[in-house]
Amino acid sequence: MSTNVPAQVGTPVEDVLTPCLLVDLDAYERNLDRMARYIDSQGLRHRAHAKTHKSPNIALQQMDRGAVGVCCQKVSEAEAMVNGGVRDVLVSNQVVNPHMIDRLAALAHQARVLVCVDDLGNVDQINAAAQAYGVTIEVLVEIDVGAGRCGVEPGQPAIPLAQRITEAPALRFAGLQAYQGKAQHVHDFEERKAKIDAAVAGVRETVDLLRQEGLECDIVAGAGTGTYTFEGESGVYNELQCGSYIFMDADYQRIRMADGRLIDDFENSLFIYSTVMSKTKAEKAICDAGLKAQSVDSGVAVVFGRDDVEYIGASDEHGVIKDPDNRLRLGEKLKLIPGHCDPTVNIYDWYVGVRNGRVECLWPITGRGMCL
Predict the structure, then answer these.
(1) In the chain, fewer beta carbons within 10 Å around the N or the C end?
(2) Helices 158-167 & 189-212, crossing angle to 10 degrees?
(3) Which DSSP symbol is given to 52?
(4) Which residues contact 257 (CB under 8 A, 6 or more apart)?
């Protein structure tokens, strides 16, 4: 992480090397504060999702604003967070490889560690590792509330899993994981709300059935930036897992509330900073941020703050920008809003934090590439 640094503290923003990830610190901090106020006003817990940023620096700032800890999707990502000072980590995913289960158990010597399960045999595997390492691991039963990925069906199928966890000497049943990932980027308000209403109904049924068996859910977790107010005001969820709100991206900016507003007015704070590297044609420009500088699963980047030019295509190392009025010039810098912030972040080594036209901080993206 000591090489390939795009700037130094104090560098004027126009002199930052590109392409790189630029963070508008004022907008970023307003986003942090806006979510923290909401969580506090609803009496909820926030376990911020670190898969968005992969940075202990950011995770600790979220915790300074009241987050109880972070979610990670991989054990290696959780290790990066704990090694960076985070002491409460949920792997909001299944861990089934024996070696990775051992690493999860070892991590529990350094921090509070939670994990999700949807298989009885996996419960036994995790318990055996926890016993071998002399630790207690907290476990959530994951239910599939519409994402169609991991998790058992809501209701009765969750009960045997919760019971097996309760009976395991080195585990503690902590509650439910119920994240509706497919709903996050549904642009239409009513359709998005209907998906979460269905999820809430399934979660409520499951909580009630578990309670009838004497099993209480300390944690009922889920929600993302696209739907968090629905889960937060459901009376069922008590721990939200929002991540992208800190940065936002082009696709999230296509999502609207009932009155047409953007999602709680969260701001774009993360940009791919890019330079016009070729201007041989009047009607277009070529910048240095191509496919290797962004994830395009939610569409290509959008030029920030300009309606006179448009990012229209990319190859490996080149971005094509439509410039009908021939306004762009060789060497000009542009801020691009990534189509999808999470996988875009995973490409870079550093965040370059900027305020008042100068670099104020550099944060290493410690969890970059942590896919195990």
Answers:
(1) N
(2) 50
(3) T
(4) 189, 263, 264
Q: What angle do CA 278, 281, 286 make, to 5 degrees?
A: 35
Phi, psi angle pair for 208, to nearest 5°: -65, -45
Collapsing DSSP to helix, strand or coil, 121 comes out as helix
Residue 61 has a pLDDT of 98
Tokens matching residue 332: 């000009």
Question: Look-up: residue for tokens 């024996």?
Answer: 98
Residues β-bridged to residue 203: none
Architecture of domain 44-248: Alpha-Beta Barrel (3.20)
Residue pair 180/146 in contact by the 8 Å Cβ criterion: yes
Distance of CA 215 to the CA centre of its chain: 30
The C-alpha atoms of residue 195 and residue 238 are separated, in whole angstroms, by: 18
Residue with tokens 């307003």: 30
CB 42 within 8 A of CB 232: yes
Cis peptide bond prior to 19, omega within 30° of 0: yes
CA dist 269 and 327 (Å) reads 25
pTM: 0.95
Please tell me whether residue 321 adopts helix, strand or coil conformation. Answer: strand
In angstroms, the CA 181 to CA 244 distance is 13
Output b/e per residue, 175-193; b: 16+ Cβ within 10 A: bbbbbbbbbbbbeeeeebb
Please name the residue that has the structure tokens 């290790």: 79
What span, in angstroms and rounded, lies between the C-alpha atoms of 340 and 305? 18
Domain boundaries, the chain: 13-21+265-364, 44-248
Contact by Cβ (8 Å): 103, 128: no
Give the DSSP letter string of 19-35.
SEEEEEHHHHHHHHHHH
List helix spans (H) across 134-260: 158-167, 189-212, 228-232
Architecture of domain 13-21+265-364: Beta Barrel (2.40)
Whether residue 1 is predicted with pLDDT greater than 70 in this model: the reply is: no
Q: Are 263 and 252 in contact (CB under 8 A)?
A: yes
> Residue 54: is its pLDDT beyond 80?
yes
Share of the chain above pLDDT 70, in %: 99
CA dihedral of 243, 249, 253, 254, whole degrees rounded to 10: -100
